[in-house]
Design brief:
Blueprint (H helix, E strand, L loop, with lengths): L15 H22 L7 E5 L5 H14 L4 E5 L8 H6 L5 E5 L5 H4 L2 H19 L6 E5 L1 H6 L5 H10 L5 E5 L5 H6 L2 E4 L20
Length: about 210
């Protein structure tokens, strides 16, 4: 029977529990070192893109997290407008959240580019005001990437507003097809890849999941 204190060929002990403990100690040391080196304190820009589900869901999870810290939050939805969503119904209950649904539906529903542009421009005017206001600790610009993709909103105007925003303000931008320039400007980017979706098998959008 092996002695738990005997060393194996890799320099660890023959005891799996002891090897695990040593490995976790090394990992903790590495993580602690990275945490100690992260000394900057400033607002970050997050871009959530890709064809998979979960971009807006992730953004609204951060809204809930911000509210838990007593932060003021601004939300502008650029595309979604026709549907009564759970996030709108829920977050409008909080005085700390300024929630604006500015879209008039998806582009294949409106089928009117001029109307879509007017709606996007109006939404951007509200969003730009939030990006100038330091009292907003978190600003969520839901589906802005789609408005940028279709050139409903000028990309350079968005980038300049993001560069000029208050130093401590966090911004989350969602939507498929985020422009390369926006991705380069971001601090954190997540590309959500679709693997399976219930809709592909004929399951309609569900309350609490998509709506």
């Amino acid at each position: 029977m092996a002695n738990p204190t005997d060393k194996d060929d890799r320099g660890g002990t023959g005891d799996p529990a002891a090897r695990h403990r040593v490995a976790m100690q090394r990992r903790k040391a590495a993580v602690d070192a990275r945490i100690a080196a992260a000394t900057k304190q400033r607002g970050v820009l997050l871009v959530l893109t890709g064809n998979g589900k979960g971009k807006s869901s992730s953004a609204f999870g951060m809204v809930a997290r911000a509210l838990g810290h007593g932060m003021r939050v601004g939300v502008v939805q650029f595309i979604k407008g026709r549907y009564a969503t759970g996030e709108k119904a829920f977050f409008r209950r909080f005085p700390e959240v300024s929630f604006h649904v500015m879209g008039e539906g998806f582009t294949w529903e409106t089928q009117d580019r001029e109307r879509d542009v007017r709606a996007a421009e109006a939404a951007w005017e509200v969003a730009a005001g939030m990006l100038r206001e330091a009292s907003y600790a978190l600003v969520v610009l839901d589906e802005l990437s789609i408005a940028l993709r279709y050139r409903y909103v000028a990309l350079e105007a968005v980038l300049e507003a993001l560069r000029s925003r208050p130093a401590a303000q966090h911004v989350v931008i969602t939507g498929r097809g985020a422009p390369t320039e926006l991705i380069e400007a971001a601090d954190t980017v997540t590309d959500m890849r679709g693997v399976k979706h219930a809709f592909d098998t004929g399951v309609r959008a569900q309350r609490g999941i998509e709506l």
